[in-house]
Amino acid sequence: MSNIPAFGLGTFRLQGQVVIDSVRTGLEVGYRAIDTAQIYGNEAEVGEAIAASRVARKDLFLTTKIWVDNYSRDKLIPSLKDSLKKLRTDAVDLTLIHWPAPSNGVSLEEFMSALAEAKSQGLTKQIGVSNFNIELTKQAIAVVGKENIATNQIELSPYLQGRKLVGFLQQEGIHVTSYMTLAYGKVLGDPVIRAVAERRHATPAQVALAWALRRGYSVIPSSTKRENLASNLRAQTLQLTDEDMADIAALERNGREVSPEGLAAQWD
Prior knowledge:
By secondary structure, the chain is of the alpha/beta class. It has helices at residues 16-29, 43-52, 73-87, 108-120, 134-144, 163-172, 191-199, 204-214, 226-233, 242-249; strands at 9-10, 33-35, 61-66, 92-97, 124-130, 151-155, 175-179, 218-219. The protein has a domain at 9-182 and 217-223: NADP-dependent oxidoreductase domain (TIM Barrel), CATH 3.20.20.100. Helix 3 (73-87) packs across helix 4 and helix 7 (191-199) crosses helix 8 (204-214).
């Protein structure tokens, strides 16, 4: 089993001073896992914020993701070394393939083998995938073995519960990381989520995050406000009842927010 922290700080769409401030504040209020990616264009700023903090590298869990342009065998490891330089570290804790990109011209076998090689070279402690459906996850397992796939990071929220894919991953012992858990903030105004929040004296964001945590997922919400960064962390101690969970289960509407053409495969 993977040892991926249940709660991390996402940095998608945050750049420049904004991401430096978010990561610095996140570390101050208690985050110890940071999620970035090559395509976010912010690895150097994340590295800068970490270096300026008083948190020791050994106390942090750093995740990055390989972008589709770097999937070929001759590019993947050099691109990861470049990421490490930007992040100011000798190794990351987790490296993911960002999207399956089936029409990319690089076979899944090639990029999964290259990723496994990066792990054997000590550039990353764990490897995994992101946005993979069941069929592609099976193919990845065939190349590197399921024990070597630490997680599949997928979009999940009360509006997109992905039961079939999640069921498969959990059955295979592959950890689930949920991104976009608040559906770009759409679930925060949901009357059902708000009612649960009132019952539990919590915020709607805490309820959505606690729902994912109770389902056994890791979450990586992002925020630029200290108040929200600190508030989101408190989802870890929010106990939702079976009734709360049933109410949220009924919100499923296949509300997918992210599915770039050419990068995503057919969703389950």
